[in-house]
Structure formats: structure tokens, C-alpha cells
Amino acid sequence: xxxxxxxxxxxxxxxxxxxxxxxxxxxxx
Length: 29
Prior knowledge:
Blueprint: H1 6-27
């Protein structure tokens, strides 16, 4: 079972990954 405190952290991680991916795509020529 996933602890409740892990849920917000997982959400932030997904947002961080999406933001990093967006930067990576933007940096591509």
C-alpha cells in the first residue's frame, strides 16, 4: 500500500518530470 504522505510527493515528481521534458524539447534544435 502507498502511504498517504507519498501521494503529494508523487504528484510533485510528475510535475517535475513534465517540466523537465518540456525544457528538453524546447532545447532541441
